[in-house]
UniProtKB/TrEMBL annotation:
Positions of the ATP-grasp domain: 123-308
Name under which the protein is recorded: Glutathione synthase/RimK-type ligase-like ATP-grasp enzyme
Keyword Heme (UniProt): no
InterPro entries reported in the protein's UniProt record: ATP-grasp, ATP_grasp_subdomain_1
Listed GO MF terms: ATP binding; ligase activity; metal ion binding
Keywords noted in UniProt: ATP-binding, Ligase, Nucleotide-binding
Lineage, top ranks: Bacteria, Bacillati, Actinomycetota, Actinomycetes, Micrococcales
Amino acid sequence: MGRGIILRVLVTSSRNTFALDIIRKLGSTGHTVVASDTYAGAIGSHSKYLEAHAVTASPRFKTDQFIADISELVTKHNIDLIIPSFEEAFYLSARVHDLPAGVTLFAGDFESLARLHDKASFQRLAEQAGVPIPETLVVTNTDELNAAIARYPRYFARAAFSRGGVGLLTNTGPLAGKMQPEDCHPTVDQPWLVQPFVDGPMVCTYSTIVKGRVTAHCTYRAPEQWAHSTGIDFLAIDSTDTLAYTEKLVGELDPNFTGQLSFDFVDHEGGLKAIECNPRSTNGVILIEADALAAALEGTNETTVVVEPGVERQVSLAVLADAFTEPIKHLPTSLHDLIKVRDIGAGWHDSIAMMWSPATLIHGAKMAHGKRQEILGALGEDIVWNGEEIDGMSESDAAALEAVHGQRV
């Protein structure tokens, strides 16, 4: 997608800061961009770099209408490429046969996405690829859960289908005791993973892959987080090991894979251990320059774009929100960051988009039904996928989903 190739692109789930970043970067490099989300106040839908934006049905709750809405947008705006920014990727991939002919979905086939997203089957994939992982137990009922956490003096547990650091069961660290074992309900269809608590900082990656080749890659840490979960400050670090691991995982998964992949590792005593994969965009994309990202999405760059260590970006409005949530703890650091660290909006002259951020919080509050402590988890409630069969999916994808469930460790 270099300067010589002009595409018409649809970016979905435009509520995400990383979706807004993709919109700005593609729009600024000459491509025509359309955005969509399930509510009108999504930040990315108000970027000046858009040709148009639209509201669609929820992929999770009204899948058929969502696919119809996306198909209408593709036809109306002559879309060449759909870039999903969140878990609507699963619904689009499962129903790709119902999208208009000629449009390309920048996401892997449904089986690959499911295998990556299911944390239990991902652990199996990493093991087969020779990528280090923590010892892992998969539990499918309360008795197994209690026995598993009793096995480890310090433990860490989460659902096989979860995201964003929400819903973690642990007796160690800042989230210890936030969730109790009786609040967890593992089943055969919705299992949980239990691991020994692995000390060390979290290391995250973001990659674009085109036909099995990693075209762009960055590795970063999040020195500042919102509610000990979602990063709001992103610092690039050395990518040598994570790029090698990403290439191994892609090779084991599908040598022809195309899409976005984001991995989380723990840096334990100088060695990385793979924790999970998000087969979609994450905030790591904001560390990649516009021209490089555009070329990487098309695969026109001859060598992999690797973000140099030391590049740093932050989400200023989120930094301020965090500062005033816990002012004594965060305000001094936040003020320093606001002065010293480049914000994701710097240089874009696109301030109206981020002014819609409160609309996203309001949307999350509505999805959480007024439960303040669950707002973060509810922000994506209408666009997530938790391992269920998808309305209208092919028989082969349904069979593949069952096979993925059978690949759990």
